[in-house]
Amino acid sequence: MRALQPASRVAVVLSSALGDSLLMMIVVRNLHANGVAVNVFGRNAVALAAWFPDVDIQPEPTPDTAPVVLAGFDRVIAMRRNGPLASPDFYHADVVLLESTCRARSPKSMADRLMQFCRDELGLEQAAKHNGMTAPDGLQHRRFRNRIAIHPTASTHDKCWLPSRFVRLALRLRKLGFHPQFVVAPQEREAWAFVEAYGIDLPELGSLDKVAAWLYESGWFIGNDSGIGHLASSLQVPTLSLFMRRGLARTWQPGWAVGRVVVGAYLPTARLRERYWKYTLSVARVVRAFDQLREALA
């Protein structure tokens, strides 16, 4: 890979997935810290622009506009060749894709892999894992120490623990003196309104930056493998993440704050684990894992 010069201009095109976007910001932060001019293009990044005050963030180009918008950059970096880069009309002489970094067999988390990519492939010797996310003024970190943000959804249904067990978990945590609240996307609220009948709060937060502010002032996070878990970890909120398989957890666990992962009971094949993990993972095991997370911060 051709070495970047201090005067180089780099475009980083983020995934439409929130977790991938936050991970890619590790690359952005390290390039910026080493004096490389970086422009970021991404839908989620635009929504969180106030949390990345030193970064030039612009909306994601469309497949039609990408060839023109990205033509003036010395290098284009993306996680995969999808979205605007998938257009047959798109061409750039220096495109770096991180798909091989994502798919490599490695014991390291994706956050650690991207930090290593910055060191080994981009030649940034002082690369760090922090993605540069910074809270705007006026917010107090973990202000509501007993509030537990529970995120019961994910990008695909197979990543989701059973709704009834999330409710039982919330009720158990409430008995322990915590204030569990469910956080879901606006389009998911109707499906999860039933939790309010149990006295469980379901705050209507709206935009992603408001979700970030609410998470930043929460004491804890518990949820499925999802972008919201990565967001909480980026904000240095302790996380407990529920995964279908240990290999996935090793790679995609949130990589910034103190965190723990918990998976279902052992089953002999990956297919069985993906299908039945949610049934083998008990509420008691999740509560024990949360106790271990608390002890790690004691």
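The record above closes out task 2.4. Task 2.5 opens with a second protein, given below.
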Amino acid sequence: MSLSEFLANLVIPLNLSITLLLLASILFIIRWRKSATLLVLGALAWVVFWSLPTSSLWAGGLLEQRYAYTPPAALPTAQAIVVLGGNTANSRQNWFEEYDRRSTIPRTETAAKLYKAGRAPLVIVSGAALDGGVSEASMMAAALERDGVPGNAIIQENRSLTTHQNAVYSALVLRQHGIQRFLLVTSALHMPRAMASFQKQGFSPIPAASPPQIVVPEDPAFSFWLPDLRALQASRSIVKEYLGILVYWLRGWA
């Protein structure tokens, strides 16, 4: 596990809180009780903050609204559509509702709608096999074909394991085919880091994010201020995205 992966997992609210409580226990044993108390309070504050729906709506909303969702028909035409592998919160329609596979909005669905709306004649899918099996690009290509995109309109980039590599290896494909103007598809939360990564490669993508997922549900019983387990679980994506932006900036990838 790389340092960046370790940090990404460490700052997940529940993981960090447990780590701080363990450190507090050690400090308490060696009689550093004031420091132990501060760590306990910090751990509780961190997990409570991210269990509140209002925290996700604020922090996640800042990222999702950076490149606001635009319906396919309202987007300009381009030479290609580039779709990045991965998913955010299991592609669920709304973070604060129960997971329902029938209502998910995967990135491939967004790309297929763009293709059918005549926004571009070519789709480039980017993503390697994270577990050594079938690549994400291959799975996305299959999903696109099921959604009506012809196989001869799909190009696969099968090497990238990260957003940085998505941009680097997709840039090679784009230049190979003489493509400069393209629509970039990923989740709304991930779009700021994705855009910055492709801009670093000398491109000016047109953002075409999937619909935002961090939105207030229609349920009248929804509360902004009551701790919610789903909010806590989903907040890991927000925290990891902010850390990713910081790491990419420090490494000169964005």
